[in-house]
Design goal:
One of its GO terms (molecular function) is (S)-2-hydroxyglutarate dehydrogenase activity. This protein has 181 residues and is of the alpha+beta class. The protein is built from seven helices and six strands; from the N terminus they run ββααααβββαβαα. The termini are far apart.
């Protein structure tokens, strides 16, 4: 949101997740406290499949990433079973009107002149190879590299990566795997 309107919303506002919709987050409102960008209210983003690992613009595209994505059984099952969702999310990301119509479902007083284009984020998503569903929980890849490494994969949100509960799980799993006393 433009700086002069950032206080219209002062807390996180998220839509209720659509059960079985594949990707839980929709257009939402998030206040920031980041000193680098200053205090602001971010509207969005939605969730679209991007065609490059660091696709920060709609025009970012990588043939290698497209091949990797189309070769991923889980990702293709997800797209096939969520085709309408995939198309509507991409459309909403490309259309300011569609994006703001979705935002107005949460905060009806938002007008076009209150927002400006900002930055986007890229989040990795894991898909089940069995049914193509999004894996919303973190996973431990235990005793990798001949038992020397514990990988924590698919931490799907900043709240997860900053969670003390997750840190406790990682520490106790590592203690068991590496026989720490």
């Amino acid at each position: 949101m433009k700086a002069e309107y950032k206080d219209i919303v002062t807390a996180n506002v998220y839509p209720a997740p659509k059960v079985g919709a594949g990707i839980a987050v929709g257009v939402h409102f998030t206040p920031t406290v980041n000193e680098r960008r200053g205090e602001q209210m971010i509207v969005g983003p939605g969730s679209s499949i991007c065609l490059d690992r660091e696709a920060y613009k709609a025009s970012d595209f990588s043939v290698k990433e497209l091949m990797r994505l189309t070769g991923n059984v889980g990702a293709m099952k997800f797209v096939a079973s969520n085709l309408g969702l995939s198309i509507s999310e991409a459309y909403r990301d490309l259309s300011k009107t569609a994006f703001l119509n979705e935002a107005r479902k949460l905060i009806p007083t938002i007008t076009d002149d209150m927002v400006e284009e900002s930055f986007v984020g890229v989040m990795g998503t894991a898909f089940s190879h069995i049914d193509g569903k999004v894996i919303n929980e973190f996973e431990f890849d235990r005793k990798a590299m001949d038992g020397l490494v514990l990988h924590v994969r698919n931490t799907p949100s900043p709240a997860c990566t900053a969670s003390f509960a997750l840190a406790e799980d990682i520490a106790s799993t590592a203690a068991a795997d590496f026989a720490w006393e």
